Amino acid sequence: MSAALAALALALAPSAWAVDNWLPHPNDATWTYQWTDSAYSTTPTSEKVTVKSSKGNSFVLAWTTDGLENPDDAVSTAGTVSFQESNSGIVNTDWSSTPPPAGWPVLCASASQCGNALSSTYYNVIWGSRNPVLQEPLVQGLTWTSTGGAGNDVASTSTYLGQSPVTVPAFQQPVIAARVRTTISQAGALGDPYGSGTRTIWWVYGVGPVKIVFDHAGGSHAPVTTMMLQSTNQQPLPPPTDIDYFPFTKGQTLTYRWTNTKYLKKPEVQQVKVDAVVNGSARFTVKDVSGPIKVAGSYGFSKRLDGVTNLWGNTQSATQLKFPPLGPSFAAPANRRHLVTPFDLMTFGFNPILPSYPAAGDAWQADQPSRDFTTYGVTGGSKVLGVQTVKVPAGTFHAVAVVSTLDESKFPYGSGTRETWFAPGKGLVKLVFKHADGSVSTVELLK
Q: What is each CA distance from 211 to 34, 41, 75, 151, in whole angstroms?
């Protein structure tokens, strides 16, 4: 028999965390930065950044050095930079400014009509990493690639380094920041190697970037650009958890044992492997190790701001066991669901499996109508219970627990209460599905 799990629409309202909190943009927001370049602008330059416009999920920031009593030999610059909030993070969509100062490196193959510059704070933020500028969810182990420059000729790889205190003039006390280090490479520009190097940005939740250090390529005497937030009317907020409770680690293998008190009394052992990872999406493959079910399958998942979601799934299985039927009742019998792997039990019902930044009290409901409902015919809701200590054969974990209520009309096996536990670095470590027909399915991580 076979099953195909489709990408499903979401009904998510679990959390106050939002993409714009890493780069907030209320209409009255202001930030003042001061920056220097050890080779081309040793005199500190102050810039004021304001919100020029905001509409829907798009906004434009403007900067200027006017009216800040900068020294005569400081850089004079003004411009705008445009952003869009997306499900995968912050995206830069456009920019414009006064030309860079004479004598600075030309960051294009020709000096004529060159649209690249690094002579402002936000140009250093978006350089080489426009889509996305900052990927979300921002969790431990996250790495992403991006491009930038007027001709998309600047490539970068960014790595999230974790949360740590940072001290900047804007705040009297150190604040917690998310550090992102980006390796940037540009080839073919007249100003090489100034357009290449390593950049570190400290992002403060509720404020935006507060510190930038760009170590340009070029040897022991290469320039260093340093930018620090001097003042702002935005307040730092406690950042969301950066623990990854559903990691996409290529090559990772997980072995599960599952049983059902009525229909699968002899344990079924299956191995799950992370087979491929690309741009916040992953493919997991499943194969049987021992037990009464012969199965092979694959599942696709994505990790975005709307949570960890099941995109698709395909299984081929054979067994002499007789499991109760599942719905939905309006689907042809050949198109109805089957629960033959731990991931079938985990994904059954509705998305997301887990919010992007899970916190106790987060709750969401199944949506109707939706692709979820068309696929499963399940109504109900899920809630994050918080972090609990759970012991399974693979070890003892501090795992985030999620409880879901499921109601598949006319199909008691597809109804009931499901509890799932997700551990850092592992993902699913335990599942208990108390079906409405009185049976109980239990999944535990063996190794």
A: 10, 17, 19, 27
- In this structure, the answer to whether residues 289 and 218 fall within a common structural domain is no
Alpha-carbon distance 49 to 68, whole Å? Answer: 12
Do the domain assignments include residue 238?
no
61, 25 contact by CB (below 8 A): yes
Eight-state DSSP code of residue 392: E
User: 52-84: string of b/e by CB count within 10 Å (b at 16+)?
Assistant: eebeeeebbbbbbbeeeebeeebbebebbbbbb
- 55 Cβ contact partners less than 8 Å away, ≥ 6 residues apart: none
pLDDT tens per residue, range 281-307: 999 999 999 999 999 999 999 999 999
Q: Which two tokens stand for residue 7?
A: 């990408």
Residues in CB range of 134: below 8 A, 6 or more apart: 22, 23, 89, 90, 180, 203
The residue from 178, 202, 232 where one domain ends is 232
Together in a domain, 66 and 207: yes
Sign of CA dihedral 311, 316, 319, 321: positive
Taking only the tens place, the pLDDT of each residue in 306-323 is 999 999 999 999 999 999
For 73-85, write each residue's pLDDT tens digit: 999 999 999 999 9
CA distance 305 to 280: 11
Question: Tell me: the pLDDT tens digits for 5-47?
Answer: 333 333 333 344 455 799 999 999 999 999 999 999 999 999 9
- Which strands, in side-by-side order, build the sheet including 281-290? 2-5, 307-318, 294-304, 281-290, 264-278, 253-260, 440-445, 427-435, 416-423, 395-408, 378-392, 363-365
Q: Determine the Cα–Cα distance for residues 309 and 14; give it in Å rounded to an integer.
A: 14
| Alpha-helix runs per DSSP H in 246-354 | 342-347
Residue that has been written with the tokens 């370049």 in this structure: 37
Here the tokens at position 172 are 């009297």
Q: How far apart are the first and last CA of the chain?
A: 28
Taking the alpha carbons of 347, 348, 354, 355 in that order, is the dihedral positive or negative? Answer: positive
What's 333's domain CATH number? 2.40.360
Residue 52 φ/ψ, nearest 5 degrees = -80, -40
Domain hosting residue 421, numbered range: 243-445
3-state secondary structure of 412: helix
Name the average pLDDT for the chain: 93
